[in-house]
Amino acid sequence: MSVGILGTKLGMTQIFEPATGTAIPVTVVQAGPCPITQVKTKETDGYESLQIGFKAVKAKALSKPEIGHLKKSGSDPVRHLKEYRLDNAGTYELGQNIGPDIFKEGDYVDVAGNTIGRGFAGYQKRHNFKRGPMAHGSKNHRLPGSTGAGTTPGRVFPGKRMAGRYGNTQVTIRGLRVVRIDTEQNIILIRGAVPGKPGTLLSITPAKKVGK
Prior knowledge:
By secondary structure, this protein is mostly beta strands. The chain has 3 helices and 12 strands; from the N terminus they run βββαβαββββαββββ. The chain has one domain: Translation factors (Elongation Factor Tu (Ef-tu), domain 3, Beta Barrel).
């Protein structure tokens, strides 16, 4: 595996290819800088990984154990911490900043984040179920209908698609292309849509499979 970067979704826009004038929908991501807050090696932890931080905050927003952990790397207080497993973690140093320059234009990335929460939703909205007849004689417009399995076993099976919380789940969009990178402002333009609304925390890693 390889190291990734944390960022926040700023929104969506479109850019135009100079040669053809084709409009490309892109998501604007504020990526990094992410200081390395911990380096794990096989000698110390049994495996190799990097822990990085993101989004500076005031010290009073963190607990004393968190502040003590960050002091070891000389890092300023940060809101988010994430670990990436590597094969060569020993080549990195504590306090080193990771920015969007770990990618280049044309690379493919996987973007993980939480989708927009939609609250408690019913069958039609949550699972795309069809509605019942809308005539006056119908007693079932948006009702679930039968949910059990008869007298035997006389219960509802686990995993039955029913009404419940919709959204706010982690989703990974794979194989998105990096269109542009601004290393001065730590901005990455990624083709297509990514999970969440503006302000959502995103984890961007090199793609395992190349998409379009």
